[in-house]
TrEMBL record:
<dbReference type="Pfam" id="PF00270">
    <property type="entry name" value="DEAD"/>
</dbReference>
<dbReference type="Pfam" id="PF17191">
    <property type="entry name" value="RecG_wedge"/>
</dbReference>
<dbReference type="InterPro" id="IPR047112">
    <property type="entry name" value="RecG/Mfd"/>
</dbReference>
<dbReference type="InterPro" id="IPR011545">
    <property type="entry name" value="DEAD/DEAH_box_helicase_dom"/>
</dbReference>
<feature type="domain" description="Helicase C-terminal">
    <location>
        <begin position="487"/>
        <end position="661"/>
    </location>
</feature>
<feature type="domain" description="Helicase ATP-binding">
    <location>
        <begin position="291"/>
        <end position="464"/>
    </location>
</feature>
<dbReference type="GO" id="GO:0004386">
    <property type="term" value="F:helicase activity"/>
</dbReference>
<keyword id="KW-0547">Nucleotide-binding</keyword>
<dbReference type="InterPro" id="IPR014001">
    <property type="entry name" value="Helicase_ATP-bd"/>
</dbReference>
<dbReference type="InterPro" id="IPR027417">
    <property type="entry name" value="P-loop_NTPase"/>
</dbReference>
<protein>
    <recommendedName>
        <fullName>Probable DNA 3'-5' helicase RecG</fullName>
    </recommendedName>
</protein>
<dbReference type="InterPro" id="IPR001650">
    <property type="entry name" value="Helicase_C-like"/>
</dbReference>
<dbReference type="InterPro" id="IPR033454">
    <property type="entry name" value="RecG_wedge"/>
</dbReference>
<keyword id="KW-0234">DNA repair</keyword>
<dbReference type="InterPro" id="IPR045562">
    <property type="entry name" value="RecG_dom3_C"/>
</dbReference>
<dbReference type="InterPro" id="IPR012340">
    <property type="entry name" value="NA-bd_OB-fold"/>
</dbReference>
<keyword id="KW-0227">DNA damage</keyword>
């Protein structure tokens, strides 16, 4: 008997196997059985033809209502038009060119079939031109005569219940996949069930062979639910086992303990802080201090709202490591942010960060900034202080990763906004230490609990939810520019009022642009019916000549040279600019307490989390913040609903869940990074949160009694198949 590793060519023939491989990347029996149906149709239930969009590749279940043959105008021969409906009132026209009288005999009114093709529109009617089809009932097939008419029988066999509709390709329609699945199910026997029998019994899970059969050919919705539940469990359990094993192994790694010193730099720093730490910051400080004092590496995620004080927590951890004789490195995603962190830390530390300078504290330490734009002499001096161990705290960008940046004793790596770094880059910095350094990952994008449990399950997680005293509330409003142009005029007046009151403002655009453009060019409609996203280079001059005439306007985006970006930020921070027109380069870390208003243009072109991050740039001082989301999206459209949600709450965790609901959850194991197909098909991080929690409980129990799964070889093999080594490394390095 064949098994899941058997090549498809041995089961379905060379020609079909080649089509499955080239169009759907399916090569083995296992690949095909794990190519799950996208949905299930029931004969007599409509598939909502009215919702089909032009240009979409679709498979619909419909009933023939009428046929008509008429001569073609431009060439010889007849045109066959077939009208099909789905029971909802929606109709679709199928058109067949050339003399195909035999199709008219097949497609009799009353017959049900599945029809696949690309939706087009002609004279206001939606249609499929020359679609592939299979009729349900007597086994006739819509291919050429003799091209596999048995497909109808195979689908008819379970058409009374649920008809699987697969992710398909034009060359491999869904019924061809269904036929191949039937062959494989009849031929292949999965090896022993990888899940321990006691776990299956405890969690009421069907066997793997049953699940694979019933997800493709369910006799009822109950069977389908059981099959999906078991296969989701496999995915969640494999993922959690991988993470729990990683965590277990990490606890055994050796690391240099960096315990807290009571009379050191950290104590002196706490004594000179101009404000009191929040209860959350103190609690996180205790967790981090305890981790740093142990003999295995800290691996902690620090998440918190924008402005919740993560940087101070990170600086306190760095000072504890310096007190213990080590060095700490902070890796920032942009030069603007690295320079800002460096200046901010110097300000906070005062004389404690200027050891060796005239006004420096001899008991303090030195800070070094390492970025790609440093001049040769400045870079050489910075690298010497790092290599000699004189610089206890090193702040930098990717430049910290390059050869030639050597540390005397790297004890802690702090990664700011880790989602902006590739896995390999983060790992390269950790490799610069003799022993694995402690790692603290900071993110200002709140992560829903089940996502954190699934993606960061091998990290300890600390959360800062409380804003420091002195932070002001931020009001957010949607400005519907197309429906109510007067609202946009009012937005610009509101910005001017804030500037007149001595404050500053941001205007954010989705694009950089190449050059200045006229107002007509900026509003020009493209071929797709939409105008291009607004760009900084186009908007800034229009604002300077129009609604913001007379204000001091600066421009900031990622294409500016590093020294120019730094200069613009310094000028804005010093209050010498009224308005900064920028891209999302200001999304992370930019801290100007005097900025109170932000206007986001084309706000519907940004993600939910991105908008939440952006608005965190205002309201950072004693005056209240205002964020205006300008959009042309119409009321009740998904884009408008998304913006209304952002305006209605400042709870970053709720918005992170909304973000996840609205976009594809993506491959949590980094297949998008590796470009490889993921085996995680069914698990939804939000809908299956309880299942994920249960899988984690079972994974912890199993790893405690059998850390390397030596007593469960089939399970170990199954985990390796679902979470291959490349993705396991992605998780570990994350």
């Amino acid at each position: 008997m064949a098994d899941l590793e058997t090549p498809l060519r041995k089961l379905v023939g060379e020609k079909t196997a080649k089509a499955l491989a080239s169009h759907l990347d399916l090569h083995t029996a296992g690949d095909l059985l794990y190519h799950f149906p996208r949905r299930y149709d029931e004969r007599g239930e409509h598939t909502d033809i009215r919702s089909l969009e032009v240009g979409e590749q679709v498979t619909v279940l419909g009933q023939v209502q009428r046929t008509a043959v008429r001569p073609m105008r431009q060439r010889r021969g007849n045109l066959l038009e077939v009208t099909v409906g789905d029971g909802s009132g929606g109709v679709l026209t199928l058109t067949f060119f050339g003399n195909q009288a035999w199709r008219e005999r097949d497609l009799k009114p009353g017959r049900w079939g599945m029809f696949a093709g690309k939706v087009t529109e002609f004279r206001g009617k939606r249609q499929l031109n020359g679609p592939e089809y299979v009729l349900l009932g007597d086994g006739s097939d819509g291919g050429e005569p003799g091209s596999g008419g048995e497909a109808g029988e195979e689908i008819e066999e379970f058409a009374g219940a649920l008809i699987p509709v697969y992710p398909a390709a034009a060359a491999v329609p869904t019924w061809v996949i269904a036929r191949c699945v039937r062959v494989v199910l009849d031929t292949v026997t999965p090896a022993e069930d990888p899940l321990p029998a006691t776990l299956r019994a405890t969690r009421n899970l069907v066997g793997l062979a049953t699940a694979l059969r019933e997800i493709h050919r369910p006799a009822s919705k109950e069977e389908l639910y059981r099959a999906r539940h078991r296969l989701k469990w496999d995915e969640a359990f494999a993922l959690q086992l991988t993470l729990v094993q990683r965590k277990h192994r990490a606890s055994a790694w050796p690391a240099q303990p960096r315990p807290r010193r009571e009379d050191g730099l950290l104590t002196a720093f706490d004594g000179r802080l101009p404000y009191e730490l929040t209860a959350g910051q103190r609690a996180v400080g205790e967790e981090v201090a305890a981790d740093l004092g142990t003999a295995h590496p800290m691996h902690r995620l620090l998440q918190g709202e924008v402005g919740s004080g993560k940087t101070v927590c990170a600086l306190r951890a760095m000072l504890q490591v310096v007190d213990a004789g080590g060095q700490a490195a902070l890796l920032a995603p942009t030069e603007v942010l690295a320079a800002q962190h460096y200046r901010g830390m110097l300000d906070l530390l005062g004389p404690l960060g200027r050891r060796g300078e005239l006004d420096g504290d001899p008991e303090g330490t030195r800070l070094a900034l390492v970025t790609g734009s440093l001049g040769a002499a400045a870079r050489r001096r910075a690298l010497e202080t790092v290599a000699a161990g004189e610089a206890g705290i090193v702040v930098g960008t990717h430049a910290l990763l390059y050869e030639g940046v050597d540390f005397a004793d790297l004890g802690l790596v702090v990664v700011d906004e880790q989602h902006r770094f590739g896995v390999e880059q983060r790992d390269a910095l950790r490799a610069k230490a003799e022993q694995p350094p402690h790692v603290l990952v900071m993110t200002a994008t709140p992560i829903p609990r089940t996502v954190a449990m699934t993606v960061y399950g091998d990290l300890e997680i600390s959360t800062l939810s409380q804003l420091p005293r002195g932070r002001s509330p931020i009001a957010s409003h949607v400005v519907p520019a197309a429906e109510k142009p007067a609202y946009l005029d009012r937005a610009w007046r509101r910005l001017r009022e804030e500037v007149a009151a001595g404050h500053q403002a941001y205007v954010v655009c989705p694009r950089i642009g190449d050059q200045a453009a006229t107002a007509e060019e900026v509003g020009a409609i493209g071929e797709d019916g939409r105008r291009p996203p607004l760009a900084v280079a186009e908007v800034a001059p229009l604002l300077a000549e129009g609604p913001l005439h007379g204000l001091r306007i600066g421009v900031l985006h990622g294409r500016l040279p590093a020294d120019e970006k730094d200069s613009v930020m310094r000028t804005f921070a010093a209050g010498d600019l009224d308005v900064l027109v920028a891209t999302t380069v200001i999304e992370v870390g930019v801290d100007v307490p005097n900025a109170t208003v932000m206007i986001v243009l084309d706000a519907d072109r940004f993600g939910v989390s991105q908008l939440h991050q952006l608005r965190g740039r205002v309201g950072r001082g004693s005056a209240a913040g205002l964020c205006l989301l300008v959009t042309e999206a119409v009321e009740e459209s998904p884009a408008r609903e998304r913006l209304d949600a952002v305006a209605s709450t400042t709870d970053g965790f709720r918005l992170a869940e909304l973000d996840l609901e609205q976009r594809r959850e993506g491959d949590v194991l980094g297949a998008t990074q590796s470009g490889r197909r993921s085996h995680l098909r069914l698990l939804s991080l939000l809908k299956d949160s309880e299942l994920i929690r249960n899988a984690r409980v079972e994974a912890i129990a199993l790893v405690e009694e059998d850390p390397e799964l030596d007593r469960h070889p089939a399970l170990a093999a199954s985990v390796a198949a679902l979470v291959d080594e490349e993705r396991a490394e992605y998780l570990e390095k994350g």
